[in-house]
Design brief:
single chain; about 280 residues; alpha/beta
């Protein structure tokens, strides 16, 4: 069953030097699965994710032939209707918790803000849901974390808080933008295990944005490879290491290998034709 359908998506920005196309003709369908989007910085990964939530603000502009979520036309509904979807049915985890969490508010206040404002919860029920959300992302001492300020948390714990915050409303679609880039390998594995369980147990759709090809190849079901705003290759994640496009092959060849040559890593020779 298709949860999200994107057809011919463009994201453009009007600048003093002309129109800049950040995303160019991107199309994909997403079921209740794990879809990875990979590519270099500036390839349009995050812009694609933010477009689904209509978080591109002027001078940016979103155009598409189709962008539907569970039968809802995301391009035609009002901003008020879009706000009702954000967080509740479509959520996004940003890259770095230290830039996403308010440094002068306790974690508990931030974690429960949506429940207070959107659902009108108060008292014991509010506290119970906050504790349950932190336990779901394997935080061992949720009472202490609720009382803490963001600077008192490690990077891994801050990222778990961000995931818990997005998952409290039990969304149907989660967009995770580099959710493990600032974490060590052990914590990274724990966060991925949490996300995997949510897709498997709750039937959630996941868009996993990353620059780590090995990680995406192990974790996701399908992969989109982006270059200069375009999707240059789409394939099953298990076949990522056998990718055919020269850009994807170039990215894979640039990865360091344990026990490999100790010389400089190879660079990526780009062809003008890749940009379309």
């Amino acid at each position: 069953m298709t949860l999200l359908s994107v057809k011919d998506l463009y994201v453009t920005f009007r600048t003093e030097s002309g129109i800049v196309e950040a995303v160019r003709g991107v199309s994909f369908d997403l079921g209740r699965e794990r879809l990875g989007i990979v590519g270099e910085s500036g390839s349009g990964k995050t812009m694609t994710g933010r477009s689904v939530l209509r978080l591109i603000r002027p001078p940016g502009r979103i155009d598409a032939v189709e962008m539907t979520f569970d039968g809802i036309d995301l391009l035609k509904i009002s901003e008020r209707q879009m706000r009702a979807l954000r967080g509740k049915r479509i959520a996004m985890v940003m890259q770095d918790p230290k830039y996403s969490l308010n440094p002068v508010m306790r974690v508990g206040e931030q974690l429960t803000e949506g429940l207070r404002r959107r659902d009108g919860l108060r008292g014991a029920e509010l506290h119970r849901k906050a504790i349950a959300a932190l336990e779901a992302v394997q935080i061992r001492d949720p009472e202490r974390v609720l009382r803490a300020y963001p600077h008192e948390l490690s990077g891994g714990m801050g990222q778990r808080v961000m995931i818990a915050m997005m998952l409290i409303p039990q969304p149907d679609l989660l967009i995770a933008d580099e959710p493990t880039s600032a974490l060590d390998v052990t914590v990274q594995a724990e966060v991925l295990s949490i996300l995997d369980g949510l897709v498997r147990d709750r039937g959630m759709g996941l868009i996993f944005i990353s620059h780590d090809l090995r990680l995406v190849g192990r974790f996701c079901d399908r992969v989109l490879v982006m270059y200069k705003g375009r999707v240059v290759e789409e394939l099953e994640a298990k076949h990522l290491m056998q990718a055919q496009h020269p850009y994807t092959q170039g990215l894979l060849n640039c990865l360091p290998r344990i026990g490999g040559d100790r010389g400089p890593l190879p660079g990526l020779d780009r062809a003008a034709a890749w940009a379309g």
